Amino acid sequence: MKFSVPRGTSDILPDAVPHWEELESKARKICKSYGYREIRTPVYEETGLFQRSLGQTSDVVNKQLLQVFSSPAKDLSQVSANSENTVVGYSLRPEGTAAVVRSYLENSFDKNEPLSKLFYIGPMFRGERPQKGRLRQFHQIGVEAIGPNSISAFLDAEIIALAMHLLKNFGIKNPKLKINSLGSKEDKANISEWLRKEFAKHKKDLCEECQNRFERNVFRVLDCKSESCRRLVNKIVKELPISGESRSYFDAVQHCLKAIGIDFEVSPHLVRGLDYYTYTVFEITAEGLGSQDAVGAGGRYDRLLDDLGGDEKANFGAIGFALGIERILLATSLTQETSTVLDACMVVLNSGYEFQKEAFKIVDRLRKVGISVDMSYTDRPVKSQFSRANKLNARFALILGEDEFDKGKISIKNMKTSHQELVDRETVLDYLRKVL
Ligand code: HAM
């Protein structure tokens, strides 16, 4: 019986891992330099948390939540979606914001600091139809800034600046930033009513999907990619009708962005698939990704804190974004093979247990002091041991033959220059320390 990796997921093979490590370590360094600290939350949460925060009508909740069982079934053969002895109360996280807000409130962060600046790196899960750049398990670098009375246009600009800084540092050429304002929660309700009224006049021109969305979540019609919807949206929506106060806030955000030299385009049709956003929303796209070209997105979600049980009097402000690691790697073509470099590789010239044991002891001693060494544990022809040393990019070969074995020595060969020296086995560590 053969198994394959589940559809919409992928193995990150050893050759690709160095790219991930590099990206993650750059992300940690840059986020910390803006004053953000890492937080790690579970990969699953109560389903209700996602329903409440992302919205019952969002595609992510409606169609894409991957549910997990609350307790492992005693007998795996009994597990099925409808099995009575399993409780379907948890879902794999489709994104990170809801969990960070849950943790923020649960751990009373607001009692300890005026503004909590947090970031996370990890896998997210959505039951999407897989295609290039759209996976069921993907990884995000997410950033959230949350605090009482923390509604400042400078913070919006800081968050956007950090997202752009990260992407440029990862090697994304020409990231395009689009911003918009959805206004306050009250503005959103008014806009929704206005859009429904306007689109009702042309309902037959909307694509099938949007005819459904029209009732559930009319905002999503604005970012529909179908030709007929685009034409209609371009004709009807020149600007979202937000209040004067919301407009001034959006103007202030734009001024702050200009002050630090960040280029952007105001896009009145930019809306987000998650319900929690109010005021500023943004999306960053990269070239060469086809239809799934958003490498990152985010926005303000001040009211989510109240919705998840925060004290309304605290006047919470919150803004954040998430970047998709797989899409960044695709856009920067950092998916090709990388090679490992090993300090040394053991080559045993004679077969037999005693030779292997002696070589193994040397390898073990070197590994314990941090020198990377490998050896093969089966008797292999010398030629194949050397070619393995080459493949592993070993800088030195440690050669143990009969002569060396008898005299308590070892030969050390520089794999690049072929220069070889015979040294006492006791001094091999000193020798390597000098040359590495
Ligand atoms: P999002 O727009 O759903 O926002 O996702 C952010 C980024 O994650 C996308 O721009 C994309 O790069 C990546 N992404 C999303 N879905 C997939 C997928 N199926 N396959 C591959 N990559 C994907 C959020 O998740 C919000 N939590 C962002 C946020 C944080 N807003 C405020 N704080």
The protein's oligomeric status is single chain
Q: Helices and strands: which structural class?
A: alpha+beta
Largest sheet: 8 strands, mixed
Bound molecules: histidyl-adenosine monophosphate
Strand order of the largest sheet: 1-5-6-11-10-9-7-8
Q: How much of the sequence is in beta strands? A: 15-25%
| Total strands | 16
Q: Name the shape in a single word.
A: elongated
How would you describe this structure to a colleague?
The protein is elongated. The chain is an alpha+beta fold and 436 residues long. The protein has helices at 17-33, 47-54, 59-62, 97-106, 109-112, 153-169, 185-200, 208-216, 227-236, 244-259, 302-307, 325-331, 353-368, 382-391, 402-407, 428-435, and strands at residues 37-38, 44-46, 67-68, 90-92, 116-125, 137-148, 176-181, 265-266, 278-285, 294-300, 316-324, 342-348, 373-374, 394-400, 409-414, 420-424. Residues 73-87 have low confidence and may be disordered. Helix 13 links the parallel strand 12 (342-348) and strand 13 (373-374). It contains 16 helices and 16 strands. An 8-stranded mixed sheet has the order 1-5-6-11-10-9-7-8, sandwiched between helices. Strands 13-12-14-15-16 form a 5-stranded mixed sheet, with helices on both faces. A 3-stranded antiparallel sheet has the order 2-4-3. The structure holds histidyl-adenosine monophosphate.
Feature tags:
16 strands, single chain, eight-stranded mixed beta sheet, elongated, alpha+beta, five-stranded mixed beta sheet, binds histidyl-adenosine monophosphate
